Amino acid sequence: MNKREIIAYFDARAPEWDARMVRSDSKIAFILDAAGVRPGVSVLDVACGTGVLFGDYLARDAARVTGVDISPEMARIAVSKLRDPRVEVLCGDVEELALPRRYDCCVVYNAFPHFAHPARLLARLSACLSPGGRLTVAHGMSLAALHRHH
Predict the structure, then answer these.
(1) In sequence order, what DSSP letters do the residues of 46-76 get, joined into one string?
(2) Distance CA 23, CA 17 (A)
(3) Structural domain range at position 78
(4) Does the pTM exceed 0.90?
(5) What is the distance, to the nearest Å, from the Cα of residue 103 to the centroid of all Cα atoms in its chain?
(6) If you ran DSSP here, which 8-state letter would residue 100 be given?
(7) For the packed helices 72-81 and 3-13, what is the interaxial angle rounded to 10 degrees?
């Protein structure tokens, strides 16, 4: 899929996204532990969707969360769900967007397969990290479950 098709796909699914999401709190806790999300860190949430992890970051007392999503509808819902000065949502292509800072943690959750150039994405995100920062790519579903889902 090209980026326009990806945007259209996620824009169309945004209104029902949260209702259809399968969530495992234990998997998310494991992922955020591995990502180093703890009090005082800044987090870049790549392909944040409707902000499904924002509450988890804030529950761990992250100092700052920047969510980025290419889908205007996903970003709009993310903004509408949570009003917290520690969270900002940017709508755009994370590979091209000028980000406002460097981050302690960068999390790509349930989104990596949707990026056409994984190596380019990883290089871009690595450059967005503060010294000693951590880039985490994770998915809450097995590969078989992911294929069934799509």
Answers:
(1) ET-TTTTTHHHHHHTT-SEEEEEES-HHHHH
(2) 12
(3) 3-149
(4) yes
(5) 13
(6) S
(7) 40
